[in-house]
Every structure is written in C-alpha cells, then in structure tokens.
Amino acid sequence: MEIPFEVKPRPDTGLWNAKVGIWLFLASEVMLFGGLFSGYLFLRLGSAGEADYFWPQGVLSVGFGFVNTLILILSSVFVVVAWLQLRLRNFEKFRFWMILVVLCAGIFLVNKGFEYSAKFKHYGIKLSDNSIVEGHGIDDTIRYEGIKEVTIDLARFNGQFLENVDGDTPKFREVISIDAEGKSILGDPFELSEKTVGKIEERRNNALREKHLASNEEKKDKDPDFVPIRWLPAMGVKQVSLIADKEFSIQISRKKLRKSFPDSVKFRDQSSLKGTISKLTPGLYLEAVDRIDLRATDSDNPETSTLVWKYLGQESLLQGQADHGSGDADDGEDKDHAAIGYNEDEQKVKDDSHPHDPKKEAETAKKIFLGARDNVLKEAKDEEKEADFGETLNHSVLKWTDEENDEVLESHAPILVPWKDVKLYSNFTPKWNTYYAIYFTLTGLHGLHVLLGALVLLYFAVFGRKLFDKDPEHMTNRVEVGGLFWHFVDLVWIFLFPILYLM
Amino acid sequence: MADTPEEILKDMKKYWRIGWILLACTVLTVVVAEITPSVTIGLGIATVKAGLVAFIFMHLNHEKSMIYKVLVYTCFFALGLLFLTLLHLYDPLIAR
User: Fold this and answer.
1) Domain containing A26: what range?
2) Which residue, among A33, A51, A142, A250, has the nearest Cα to B77 in the 3D structure?
3) What does the pLDDT read at residue A330?
C-alpha cells in the first residue's frame, strides 16, 4: 500500500508527513532539554544561596569545548551542503559530505571521551572540617585485621567478603544458640559459600515453620475458635552469626564497602565483620594534590585552620608493597590527571630529576596556596575593591610564580587523610556534587543524540543509493529530516558550551 | 525554496557564509569570556548563533504556518519551565 504525502506535501498544511513528524519530535526534544536547562539553572541559582558546596567554575577544558563547538558547527554546514547536493541530484558528492559529517561526530565523541575520562580519574576528598583537596592517584585500600565474628544476611549474602580475604579462607561455625552464661554454642565447621548459606537458611526456616505450625495446632486444641496464623517467609530467620576457626584479614577498596567503622565493616550484601583497621591502611591516600579549596573552613586563618596542612605530605604505608591491590591499584595506565593535557612522561622526568620528598612538596604546596591567596588580596587592595571569595581560598597548587623572589614553585604533594576525617570522597561524577550530576546528564544525553544522529546519517550515506535511484525526491526529503535533527543537536550544544565551559 | 541549480548553488554559498559567521561567533564567545565573564553577553551571542541555525539551516525563515504554531506552543511551555526556577526566590530555606 502506498502511503500518501510521503513525498508530495498535503494540500491543506503544505507539509509532507516526515516533516510534520520531525518537527513534533523536535518540539518534544525542546521540552526535554528545556527541562534539563531549567534543572541546571535551578541548581546553579540554589548553590548561590546556602548550598553545602560552591558551584565549580572553570573545571572543564575550554579548549576541548571550543574545538567540539567548531566541529559541530562545521558538521551542520556539511549536512546542509550534502542535502543541497542531493537536490542537485549528485549522490556521490552527497555521500562525500555526509561521511564528513559522520567523521565530525566521531571526533566530537572521542573528544568527549577524553573529557569524561579525565573526570573519572580526578578525585576530590572532603575532610571533616569541610576543606577539599583534589588530585589524582587515589588509593582507597582498607585492611581489616583480627576478624573472627561475622554476621551475614541470609537473603542477600553473595560471598563478596570471601573474595577479599587475605590468605587462606578460614572455615566457619554457625552460632546455633547462646547458653545461660552467654556462651555461644557452635555448630560443625563448614566452608562458607552461597550454597552452604542457602542450606542454613532452609534448615533454620524449616525448623521455625514446624515450630510455628505446632504452636498453631496447640492453640487450636486449647481454643476451637482460634484461627491459625499462616506461615509467611517474613517470619523466617534473617541473619546468622558465624565464628571463624581462625582470625583472618580482608583487604578491599573502600568504595566497594557499604560502611566502615573503626571496629567493624559492612559489605553491600549486609555481611558485617568485626575487626580493626590495619595500621598499614590508616587512611585515604591521594598521590598528587593539585587543588586545595578552603572556602568552607575558617576563612580568616587559612594558614592554620585546616586539617589539610596536617595531612599533606604524608605517604601511604602501602607504597612499594607488592601486594596492596584492592583490584584498583594504580599502575601507570591508571594514573588520573586533573587537567586534560597533563603529560605523564614529562611529569615522570620531573619526578626523577629531583628526589621526591613529600614533606618538602607539602611545604611548597602550602607556599603556593598562601602565595596565590596573597596575590588575590593584593590585587583587590590595589584596585580598591573587595577580593572575590571564590578566588581567595581556592587555588591550584601545582605551579605558581613567586614574583617577589623571581622563583617558580611547583609541587607534587601526596596526602593521607585518616579514615575518621574523610567526610566524602569520589571521582568527579554525580556523587561528588550536583554540578557533575547536571553536567553528565546534559552532555551525556546530548552525546547520545550525536551518536544516534550520526548513525542515521551514516545509514543514508551508505544505503541511500537504492532509494535515490528509485525516487530522488523521497531520498532528499529523508535527508532533510535527518539534517533538521542534526541542526537541533548543534543548537543544543551552542547553549551548552557557554553555560558549562565559560560561565 | 530554490529549485533551479543556479539558485541551489547560490543557497550553498549562503550556507557557507552563515557557517563562517557561526565559527566567528564561537571565537568571539571565547574571547569575550576571557575579557569579561558576562553571562548576558555569552548567552546573547549563543542566542544569535542559535537563531542563525534555526532560521537559516533549519529554514524557519520560510516555513509553513503549522510548524510555527507547534513551535510557539513549545517555546511557551519551555520558557515557562525556565521561569519556574525563579520560584527558588521564595524557598523558605534561602529567602528568610
């Protein structure tokens, strides 16, 4: 059956079907992105009030955003040129320009990939006094020692902690009951696994059910009007305590845990282990701090008021040990860099050219921070205006030129923050703050549009010949529709670029 | 809409010209942001660029009335969403 108005316009609206369709779709897209832009505005205006964090500015590489904007604009021109080539009935030239569009989309997405990757590898730590350090080379390995007592959730147990036992996995005994003197009565030793836990659950619940049913019978015997209570799974046993036949240790990345306390640790499957944090892993380690932000601490005395100076320059005790892997150990490949353009080889040469003294590096970092702060205050004084709060207590500590002494200071200081003083830590993802939540939502959704749009346009370029030969007008209309979508994608980016990269 | 090859080639030149203007506007946005971090100027230039894309590349300068009707409704509600954010001024936690 032939569909009417696929090529020729309807007499009443003057439009062919696909054109109406694409504009209705674009209208819904305007609402979608409009909603997200409103969300951005709301979050940004909100952070200017009494939010618990400062809106990050200048954290994206303008160079990358700029290049991507140019690429999308060029691709928009290419799309329209490709469409005009079809109208001139020149399919080969159309194909050439369309493939250029797809290449532009590829470059755009690769650039975006670099940008995302830098964010995934860049970490921030919020200390208990609300000061913030940022940097790369995280080691969040945490080791618990002297573990004997374990409590597991029968329904959720997935054996995660067993995979992180350091050395041989011990056998466990089930705590069957506790006698009058408070002593545990233990079952036979067994190898803990999901299967054995399933058996324990079945055995215990069977026993409870039988007891419940017997109780029903007994009550019914006493009272003929008694209505028996049905057995429900919720009445079954939830947790079971186990004792290991020898003390053991676990070593794991902190982010894989649900909660960690000085004397116990809880896994995501609710398994709770009693033990103490090893002296080998007293805290969270960041290999190179590149930014310090003291805006939320006592701003009058930044020289002394923050915990950052106390912990800056402390090295991880696990450094140099072969077996400290939590599965996330930083090998050369996994080094994360604050800024795109960070040259690892260059940095290594610098590191090797002078002995790395963490304490000295920390002193330099402090000098850089306080020096940069003094510069801001001095400049403000010279210009007889109030110094910008955001610029006074938030500085990169990688490099600074001391103009008075004509000296260039560079630092590469590590930090070791004791677990008790780690309020929050994360790479630069939505967990870190709402800026990254809206940044990833907006750019991720836009990137998805670029990808899908490019696939459709690639389809036209590769498989469009047949339709073009059969009905060139139909093919031209299809490309126009695809082009309209592509221009819309460009249009969204035109707004995303200034609001995310420049403001 | 241009139909003859001559008119189409003329259109092509126009699209390239608009493309260069858009690229120049992008450079201008970055330069202005370096000089003054003005939100108004940045968004102003972005709006001009978006206008060029919508009116020239997407042919909104000569479309059928049905499309304008759809877009007018859409813009009304999209702008409404943006203005909803102004309600934050009445947030009891901020506006004491």
Assistant:
1) 17-122+432-502
2) A33
3) 43
